[in-house]
Amino acid sequence: MNPDEAVLLRVDEYSRMAEAYEAHVVPRFAPLAGWLVAGANLRPNAMVLDVSTGTGLAALLAAKAMGGTGLVVGIDLADGALAVAQTNAARAGLRN
Predict the structure, then answer these.
(1) What's the predicted TM-score (pTM) here?
(2) Using CA atoms, how far apart are residues 22 and 88, in angstroms rounded to an integer?
(3) Residue closest to 86 by CA, chosen among 14, 3, 22
């Protein structure tokens, strides 16, 4: 197996386990993500790039912190994780 194949296997694994990750791991990181976003002192109309966003915990907190203004972009290789993040954003009524 070459390094590219290994990366693709990991990405596929992260995509498959995104919902379980959201349910069991994200709650443990919520306080840390909240601290991170609060420390960023985000203002309305700010722009945020969340690299390796996973299921979007920090990105969603950032979007809420800006009061629905500005722009938050979350990127991740795992499509399954991004799908969970998009669902969470829609449920929270976030469009930024």
Answers:
(1) 0.90
(2) 10
(3) 22
Kindly state the tokens that stand for 32. Answer: 């840390």
pLDDT of 30-49, one tens digit each? 999 999 999 999 999 999 99
Lookup result for tokens 């709650």:
27
Which two structure tokens, joined as six digits, stand for 30? 């919520």
Angle between the N-to-C axes of helices 3-16 and 79-91, in degrees from 0 to 180, rounded to the nearest 10: 30
CA dist 13 and 18 (Å) reads 9
Cα separation, 1 vs 47, in Å, equals 39
Q: How far is C-alpha 73 from the chain's CA centre?
A: 9
What single-letter amino acid sits at 21?
Answer: Y
Q: Which amino acid is at 79?
A: D
Residue 1 has pLDDT above 90, yes or no: no
Residues composing the chain: 96
